[in-house]
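Check this.
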Amino acid sequence: MTKQEKVAFVINKLNEIYPKVAIPLDHRDPYTLLIAVLLSAQSTDKKVNEITPILFKKADTPQKMLTLSVEEIREIIKPVGLSPMKAKGIYGLSEILLEKHDGKVPASFEALEELPAVGHKTASVVMSQAFNVPAFPVDTHIHRLMYRWNLSTGKSVKQTEKDAKRLFPKEIWNKLHIQIILYGREYCPARGWNLEQDEITQKIGRKSVIQAYHKNKKTRK
């Protein structure tokens, strides 16, 4: 298979399995999405979705968030991990949104990445899902699958994003990155991976990855 045939196979298979996708993080508007994405760093969407209703009941706008102290925010978000940094980030970005952006989340990568605790991946999610601007946020699942599928070298998240944007049509980036995340969780996880259920890696996977899988399987027997 050529690389373009592999890409077409991935797109078709993901559309077959996930014809419709929803953003995994519960939110109501760009601000609540921004906060949810920030909270999801090194945590699970499930855990974030358990915490955000509690937080957003108290504060779902930058104005309301500033009525809480950093310590109060931290207490609420503790279960998602990295709470000291995340609480400071949430408070700090809420202040900047009010001071510089009239309390609204800016629709630009540059402005978003200037906010405390907001990196390129968080900005990409907000741009793609809140403002429908084509972006390809790369999380651990996408990074892993692009390597396993031999579509990227796995050298860095930056390289994976570059390769994904080069290989896949721009008009499907926003849907596709969610489809790959869902597939990674369901069929191609980091742990407890069953290659027999993973059609895409079986068909186009990197030879060294498949060989290592079978070698490990023999060792476990």
